[in-house]
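ok trying again, last paste got cut off:
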Amino acid sequence: MLDASKRNAETSAIITGGAQGLGLAVARQLAGEGCRKIALLGRSKEKGGTAVAELEKAGAEAIFIAADMADPNACLRAVDSALKRFGTINALVNSGASTARGTLVDTTVQRYNELFDTNARGPFFLMQGVVRHLLETKQPGSIVNVLSVNIHCGQDFLTAYSGSKGAMATMTKNVAAAYAKNRIRCNAVAPGWMDTPGEHAIQKEVHNAPDDWLVKAEASKPFGKLAKPDELAVLVAYLVSPQSGVMTGSIIDYDQNVIGLVG
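nice, full thing came through this time. structure:
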């Protein structure tokens, strides 16, 4: 079996939402598995600079590209920037997303567009840019889309969010089928409630949660914790790597609540 420290030695990756949370955890994991070319996409240059410095200490060549995921042209330019720096890209992790709340009846047009533009349109054009490059250079590649267990339904205050992630679930399978003969794989993970800086912010700002909301939330869960980015990052890095073999078109639920359980 290939040494885990070399599992992604041939990987050159773009990671969205890469300056914090799951995206940064994936970048760290890839660097630990030998990936030496990592482009992080996000909005905060300050956080991006800190993340790049950390990855460089781990031995990776890393860059931060400031980009608004809701802007398809910015997404395509980001792919071009990564290619200009690294020469090639053979992996994409679509981790960045908006988790803005909204029920069917109170979601504004602006909020709806924000969610679908950031969570579906942006990733679509990032995939387009990367797949075009792979087809032109006749290279195999791997895409991993980070979805949500809410693709199966979602809470009433996540109607538009659930729909945007559901759109990406369909695109994951479509892209996998379309480019399997080109050895371009496309898989997805659908995590449940996760302990991230973004989740903490939205709990405080939107749900008026107490300071100890995480302790209380984790106490109610079967495994005594929420999903952790560092743990999920191991799975994402595996799906990125050649060691996941012929696996494509798969959507993996990553949650402690079994989907479909009644009662």
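cool. The chain has one domain: 4-192+227-254. The first strand starts at residue 12 and ends at 16.
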